[in-house]
Amino acid sequence: MPVVTYRDALTQALREELQRDDTVFLMGEEVAQYNGAYKVSKGLLDEFGPMRIVDTPITELGFAGVGVGAAMVGLRPIVEFMTWNFALLALDEVVNAAAKMLYMSGGQYKMPMVFRGPNGAALQLAAQHSQAWESWLAHIPGLKVLTPGTPADAKGLLKSAIRDDNPVVFLEGEMLYNTKGEVPEGEHIVPIGVAELKREGDHCSIITHGKMVLVAMRVADDLAKEGINIDVVDLRTVRPMDVEAIARSVQKTNRAVVLEEGWEICGMGAQVVDFIQRECFDDLDAPVLRVHQEDVPMPYAKNLERAAKPDAGKTVAAIKKVMYLD
Amino acid sequence: MATKVVMEALSPTMEEGRLVKWSKNEGDQIKSGDVLAEVETDKAVMELVARGDGVLRKRLANEGDASPVGTLLAVIAAPDENIDSIVGAAAPAGGAAPAAKSDTAAQSPAPNKTVADTKETAGASAVPQTPAQSQGEASTPPQQKTSSAPSAPPARPAAPRPPSPPAAPRGNGSSRPSAPQAGGRQRSSPLARRLASERGIQLGGIQGSGPGGRILKRDIENAKATGAASGRSAAAERLAAEGDFKDVALTQIRKTIARRLSESNGPVPTFFLTAEFDATRAAELRSQLAEMGDEYKASFNDIVIKAVALALAEHPEINAHWLADKIRQFNRIHVAMAVAVEDGLITPVLFDADRMTLWEISAKARELAKKARERKLVPEEYTGSTFSVSNLGMFGIDQFTAIINPPEAGILAIGGVEQKPVVIDGQLEVRERMRVTMSCDHRVIDGAMGAKFLQTLQRYFENPISLLI
């Protein structure tokens, strides 16, 4: 199986879906002539032309609204945000228009569109540009929220997202674009709402998604050397959430650490913990612990940024605590 | 670090124990695992062992005292440690623990007060206190540790599965945040509670190894391994763990039989089947074996047990437990034999009796009976049976009915072997005869089913050569 970058996996998915269905089109800032701010749409303008690969002005609210309108009349728009940190102004279209359209039109208007772009922190982009938005977006009925952590999942989920008749929020990562992994060629679909057990172990579960999957895998490798075997559950989709996969894992290991990129309060992990306490109460041998960003705006200073982010060290500490090894 | 020595639940059904004899004196150096005293439970005399190191500072119970499970019996502590608060907490009721519980509870309205007291008297006020220290009064784990040494983090058993990295010393504010402990409530993880309930283990008898004395899965597993504090259904649990059984779902007619007959005839609707077996050949076998020497001797009881075990192997429907929502038929055959002891009876078990030779049964039965009379049986030896046999032949009883030991489905009562006139082929002969009566739980065993079992048993017993091959 070819090893490709997360970025190229996304490009493959876009290209294949653009070829497959001529109602699919991509728009966003610098997606066409510049080949995308992160080169995800590299070569697509040449292949599909300016009607389907559309550069927009720096107007997130405006082009998100154009996308909603296009979806209403039967096209399948893919709206790229240069980063989700720039998308806050556009959330009115995402939350009030796209997410509500099917419901408020009494089922008359489907909303087959994708909002995609990098989410969360990169390196030293400071407080306004280092935020993970999945818990905001997953809060909204009507949206599906996808958080692929590997190239294969990025390709498979983006293809599913483009084919879905509902508005899908697709969260990528600047730090993920260069990561590599095996990606099946051609038709590779990852279903929405299905988690994957990325690694099997019976001592403790890590429930995670997105960028943090890489941290979880590193932690699992490190702890394996100490004889601690970690079950890594990659949610892949945070809404709808694959709660059965969580239950299967926790029922096996009897303890869990929930790892996410965002802040603690009302984070995705809070939802996971809520589910675990309800469905796995009698299986728990320890309280479920969470690892997340510290409850501060992301510092710019390199050392403070490192201290604020969730990382392998914090995750190991949490695992040892729930295993009563600390 | 003071360790409270309390009356532990040393048998599945024990509610109180009598302190027979102290094995250590006040002032003796104690190591964890040392035998502190002998305690008479409802079934046997067992050893009470120390769960902590130090000096036996104070004995609070006298030899001969009976105390409910959980009563403070002694305190182990460092030679210079102040134990007044621990001893004082037990003192007001003069050894009567139930009263002590309510008294002390009344004296300390705020659970945290106990912690504060312990802190002061332990002379280590700077130490982060674990919640375990406030577990003074109510139904508590056997021996609670009271931390008073800043340099020594509470020892804990190694985790059962992964290798445990060295415990980092804790202190300077890094102690676990923990909710205040209400009136000695025993902490336990939900999983531990579920496992304990499934296995019939009482949490009260277990020392938790988690933070604040929280009972964890590993503590339940250890408790099961040691057999301590196992509850009434521990035997059923052990049988189930063997995995060698078949659960039979209750048919409607089975349910109706169970319900109607229970209404009519108490919780275990019992009926009785009596048969008279010819014991002439068994008697001959006995005398032949006796001639071969003492090591070959077998009693009628041994012969009956062997025959019962073989008959049960052919009738799994009799070798069963009634579990209310189903009948569990066991593939393995564990025969209990009732043994009279000074003030009651006990039923040690011959495990896998069908696989034992007659001599093995004979030797094991003798050993178990001796241990039973000396009250040395451990719970593993008198629980876990699938069928029972009771014999009063040696008391000149020719026939009687025995009471079923639930959840077993039957018990066989053996009368004495005596010479009787019998008509055989029209001729009057004098034969050795033995009467047996099987008590059957009608929810499990029907009349014809029981009768067929007795026929099989008769075939084996009357042809005892079959027991030797």
Secondary structure elements and pairings:
The complex is a heterodimer of chains A (326) and B (469).
Chain A: E1 3-5, H1 6-20, E2 24-28, H2 44-48, E3 53-55, H3 60-72, E4 76-80, H4 91-104, E5 114-118, H5 134-138, E6 144-146, H6 151-163, E7 168-172, E8 180-182, E9 196-199, E10 204-208, H7 212-224, E11 230-234, E12 237-239, H8 243-253, E13 256-263, H9 268-279, E14 289-293, H10 302-308, H11 312-322
Parallel strand pairs in A: 2-3, 2-4, 4-5, 5-7, 6-7, 10-11, 10-13, 13-14
Antiparallel strand pairs in A: 1-8, 6-12, 9-11
Chain B: E1 2-6, E2 16-22, E3 29-30, E4 35-40, E5 45-49, E6 54-59, E7 66-68, E8 72-77, H1 84-90, H2 97-107, H3 111-122, E9 145-146, H4 190-199, H5 217-226, H6 234-242, E10 245-249, H7 252-264, E11 270-278, H8 280-292, H9 300-314, E12 320-322, E13 326-330, E14 335-337, E15 339-341, E16 344-346, E17 349-350, H10 358-373, H11 379-382, E18 387-391, E19 410-424, E20 427-441, H12 447-462
Parallel strand pairs in B: 14-18, 18-19
Antiparallel strand pairs in B: 1-8, 1-9, 2-4, 2-7, 3-6, 4-5, 6-8, 10-13, 11-20, 12-13, 14-17, 15-16, 19-20
